[in-house]
Amino acid sequence: MILSLFRLVRLPNLAIVALAQYLVYYVLLLPAFRQAGIKPALDGPHFSLLVLATVLATAGGYIINDIVDFRIDLANRPERVIVNRKIRRETAFWLYFCINLLGFVVSLYLAFYVEQVYLANIFPIAVVLLFVYSTHLKRKPFAGNILVALFCAGVAGLVWFAERAGFAALAQRLPGQAGEVGGLITWYMAFAFLSTMFREVIKDMEDLQGDVGANCRTIPARWGLPAARAIAAAFGLGLLGFLLYMPLRQPQWFTQLSLLYLLFAIVIPLAAALVLLFRARDKKQFYNLSQLAKLIMLSGLAMLLLLSLK
């Protein structure tokens, strides 16, 4: 039961979400604040509560997605179906409700803690958007893909937003340091958006058979695999160009180690993924390509760490 629950909420993905937020806070923002003598809005324990709220919203999104897509998943990935096999549908709904309730309580407490109660609206808005994604937007071309990509980019952006007052003070006291920190966060958000869009279109190609059967109008279901390949390639090439441009635009961010890591851990795998994109023909090949894209996304998080510790 416990292992099934971990699979339902995608525990490794939740760990990556938490890691990204801790990295932005402890490695980028907090050292800059200390250097400038600025007190963050959230201390360590309260920041962990922000991470918890983010993780709970993400977990709830995974649960409702599996509940709504039960029949589609039976066609696309029957071996990985949890709802109605390992965990009853009613139990999954109950978990979804409890997780979201806990997340809202945590977010409400944090809103009162920073004395900005209106910020408590962020959590229910996120929950509603994830619900709408699972029930409607996922079945439309681009809309669902873009929403997921924005959420992935927003994981880091949420930390920046939570500490916006401190960052504004940093910009006044140490503008160069603020520009460095803001630039790194923006770099990662752009990387997260583009890499997620690349993988999302690939996943739609992998799930084409089940999506067509469920009358989903995803990019490959509506316009065909050739168009989907071209769209995925556009995002992949855009990401590749972005990665190659950054060392030229911000050479001070990069050391020899980070340049080598960028080349061998991200650029070369991404170039290989673009080649495989046009060679993939069956579901297994698209699945392997999707996993490679996911590895590239994770490598980007490690790249942010290297850039911040230069």
Features:
310 residues, mainly alpha, globular
From the alpha carbons, calculate the radius of gyration and give it in angstroms.
20 Å
Helix content: over 70%
Query: How many domains, in number, for the residues?
Result: 1
Report the span from N to C terminus.
43 Å
Average pLDDT confidence is 93
> Low-confidence parts lasting 5 or more residues at pLDDT below 50?
none
Main sheet: strands, sense, barrel: none
User: Proportion of β residues?
Assistant: under 5%
Q: What does the overall shape look like?
A: globular
User: Can you count the helices?
Assistant: 14
Total count of strands: 0
Instruction: List SSEs in N-to-C order.
Output: HHHHHHHHHHHHHH
Which structural class matches the secondary elements? mainly alpha
Can you walk me through this structure?
With 310 residues, this protein is mainly α. It is built from 14 helices and no strands. Helix 5 packs antiparallel against helix 6. The chain is globular, with a radius of gyration of 20 Å. The N and C termini lie far apart (43 Å). The model has no long low-confidence stretch (mean pLDDT 93).
Quick take:
With 310 residues, the chain is mainly α. It is built from 14 helices and no strands.
Break the fold down into its secondary structure elements and pairings.
Blueprint: H1 2-8, H2 11-36, H3 44-68, H4 70-76, H5 89-113, H6 122-135, H7 143-162, H8 164-173, H9 175-206, H10 208-213, H11 219-223, H12 225-249, H13 256-279, H14 283-308
Helix pairs in contact: 2-3, 2-7, 2-8, 2-9, 2-14, 3-5, 3-6, 5-6, 7-9, 8-9, 9-12, 9-14, 12-13, 13-14
